[in-house]
Amino acid sequence: MKRTIIYLLIGILFGITMFKSEAASWFRIYEMFRFEAFHMYGIIGTALFLGLVTIQVIKRFKIKSFYGEKIHFPPKQKSFARYAFGGILFGLGWALAGACPGPMFTLLGAGFLPILIVILASILGTFVYGLLKDRLPH
Amino acid sequence: MDWIYEPWPWYISGFMIALIMFLLIMVGKNFGMSGNLRTICTICGSGRKVDFFKFDWKAQRWNLIVVLGAIIGGFIANHFLTLEATIALNPNTIADLQTLGFENAGETYMPTELFSSSVFTDIKSLLVLVIGGFLVGFGARYAGGCTSGHAISGLSNLQLPSLIAVIGFFVGGLTMIHLIFPLIF
Predict the structure, then answer these.
(1) Where would you find the membrane-spanning parts of this chain (chain B) (predicted)?
(2) Which of its termini does chain B have fewer beta carbons within 10 Å around, N or C?
(3) Residues of chain B with C-beta less than 8 angstroms from the C-beta of A14
């Protein structure tokens, strides 16, 4: 129960951040792909820089989790095709719908009901990937 | 406290995202949102037909709670922490969007042409949302992650696969905005 509340609070923090940072705005995604503002690059760059330092510190000093467990960073499976093709398809959708899987849910909470269509379609897309998985280059 | 009603600057937002990833790591989890779409498929019963969805979804319940939080966070941010949700876009972007038919670019948080209730009866807008969402779901799972899983978590951990995926995100995004948008709008 206590852990559930922690996950919920982290999620609320994430939702507020996505909305207030405007990373959930379709307009900001469009502007980013036109290279006409630093805003989104600043957000991703700052998160990335701080994230990189954090993870290296956790690894170097073998920092344990809050519950005293060892922290694992499972390496990603080595491949080119799946990341390149999957990435390009994701990018096409990201720019068209102007939303990625986190902000989608934030927008739902913010009251933009048409985002439900995007969410349902993304669940369908995930399902179709599962259907075709073995026939796609990985 | 007036600052809270203003849009957050990029460095605050970037810091918050890194903090969220750090908190998730420190409670023994990881930061990645698209995995939830797979979990939802499994809960809906896809595992009976497709092996890819045969897994113990209860182990991923924590991430669904994070999603629930993201929904609540969106509600709180829009209703209590924002007075006027306009976006200070680059004037060039606004002019460009206006030529594409987005008349009130930046005056609202989302374009009314795609995200007001009237889209439910507009075939073209519906198609844009359906195709966009489908590609996001399909592409994220094919690539094994989305913006949070690859661009933040993966790159922070210096994963080459994530770099390939993020380059793919941009190749796709740039193609959509610069080559396909002029054809559809």
Answers:
(1) 12-28, 62-81, 123-143, 163-184
(2) N
(3) 17, 20, 66, 69-70, 73
Distance from C-alpha of B11 to C-alpha of B106, rounded to nearest angstrom: 21
The overall pTM is greater than 0.90 = yes
Closest Cβ opposite residue A20 in set B7, B23, B172: B7
More confident residue, B126 or A72: B126
State how far the Cα of B110 lies from the Cα of B74, in Å rounded to an integer: 13
ipTM: 0.96
Q: Are B161 and A138 in contact (CB under 8 A)?
A: no
